[in-house]
Specification:
Elements: H1 3-13, H2 32-39, E1 47-50, H3 56-63, E2 68-72, H4 75-87, E3 93-97, E4 110-116, H5 124-137, E5 138-149, H6 167-174, E6 179-190, H7 192-195, E7 215-225
Parallel strand pairs: 1-2, 1-4, 2-3, 4-5
Antiparallel strand pairs: 5-7, 6-7
């Protein structure tokens, strides 16, 4: 992946990028849709947190005693996640700076792979490589969860917006490598409205708020497995 893309993401985590303050997806806890999976015991075995960011998902899983590897492109995020794990005494979470679209060395390892808002952040040309890489890292029978922005989460033509998807687009991309079990409507909770700069060249839609005042942005939660 190009070095300028690494720098762009690193700028966001250093709070010097497009947004005001911390990245809006940093909410200090796992995404609620994924926290519900943890509570229900659906994230099992050794876990890959794909595009982990500052890794609240990994840290929550490690706090439950699970072994997790978080991979992210961004050195600032990986350093923050590593520091947080050390401060919390979580020894079963490790973090690696790598390009998830081409990462190797984990063949057949993970029982669960979780994508907490990564897929839509990849350039179009990187999505296929990522899904192939994740499939290679998965053990037989592994489960794959993807939480991704749906069309309508951002206005058409929004600058520095993600690659939102329709249900059919998501299904077509993932089914090349994985057997899809379910795609259901979901929400990504983010401080998006608060993080948008006043001079932004577009206006965000008016979202329903959650109990903590965060925007509930339209998304899909996909569940798939490796045969």
């Amino acid at each position: 992946m190009a070095s300028e893309e690494v720098m762009e993401w690193d700028d966001a985590y250093q709070e010097s990028g497009h947004f005001q303050g911390p990245p809006p997806w940093n909410i200090g806890e796992p995404q609620p849709e994924l926290a519900a999976l943890i509570r229900s015991g659906k994230i099992r075995g050794e876990v890959l947190d794909a595009g982990c960011g500052v890794a609240e998902l990994s840290l929550a899983l490690a706090a439950e005693g699970q072994t997790v590897v978080g991979i992210d492109l961004t050195p600032t995020a990986v350093a923050a996640a590593t520091k947080a794990a050390a401060e919390r005494g979580l020894t079963t979470a490790t973090f690696v700076q790598d390009d998830i679209t081409s990462s190797t060395g984990y063949d057949g390892r993970f029982n669960t792979i979780v994508d907490s808002t990564l897929f839509h952040s990849l350039p179009i040309e990187g999505g296929d490589g990522y899904l192939r890489s994740a499939h290679r890292a998965a053990a037989p029978g592994a489960v794959f969860y993807i939480l991704v922005f749906a069309n309508g989460a951002f206005p058409p033509g929004a600058q520095f917006g993600p690659n939102t998807v329709s249900e059919d687009e998501l299904r077509d991309a993932v089914s090349k490598y994985w057997t899809i079990d379910e795609i259901k409507p979901a929400f990504i909770h983010a401080n998006m409205t608060a993080a948008m700069p006043a001079e932004a060249p577009f206006t965000m839609p008016a979202f329903e708020k959650d109990e903590k005042g965060r925007d509930k942005m339209p998304a899909f939660l996909l569940t798939a497995h490796k045969d």
